[in-house]
């Protein structure tokens, strides 16, 4: 009978250690996730990009000199089974709507860092 309180005390001690170590592991994982997110934001601000909004696999495309709208859409990997009906290009707060047929006909539209392309 004296053994039961000892076993319960040991079980409580083991449970609290497990809980503390689990909590510590969660804290470490949260800290590392925060650091990774900060590094991703810092890397994105260090390198110029173009944002693609719509049904695409890659919403952020690295900008390089000479990047065109068609190249950015190809790099973003358009996922919709239907062809786009409208493309909106926003540059420094000003937007312009484009007919996708213009791209299909071979028009070259250069992009600048920070441009946002919306595909519908």
What would you note in describing this structure?
- The chain folds into 2 domains: 46 residues; 73 residues, Outer membrane lipoprotein wza domain like (Outer membrane lipoprotein wza fold like, Roll), CATH 3.10.560.
- The chain is an alpha+beta fold and 120 residues long.
- The protein contains 3 helices and 5 strands.
Say what the CATH topology of the largest domain is: Outer membrane lipoprotein wza fold like
Radius of gyration over all CA atoms, rounded: 26 Å
In DSSP terms (H or I, runs of 4 or more residues), the helix count works out at 3
Distance between the termini: 74 Å
Which outline best applies?
A: elongated
What class do helices, strands and sheet pairing give?
alpha+beta
Strand order of the main beta sheet, please? 2-1-5-3-4
Would you kindly provide a brief summary of this structure?
Helix content is 48%, strand content 18%. By secondary structure, the protein is an alpha+beta fold. The protein folds into 2 domains: 1-46; 47-119, Outer membrane lipoprotein wza fold like.
Could you give the topology of this structure?
Elements lengths: L2 H44 L2 E5 L6 E3 L6 H8 L10 E5 L2 E5 L1 H5 L11 E4 L1
Parallel strand pairs: 1-5
Antiparallel strand pairs: 1-2, 3-4, 3-5
List keywords for this structure.
Outer membrane lipoprotein wza fold like, 2 domains, 48% helix, 120 residues
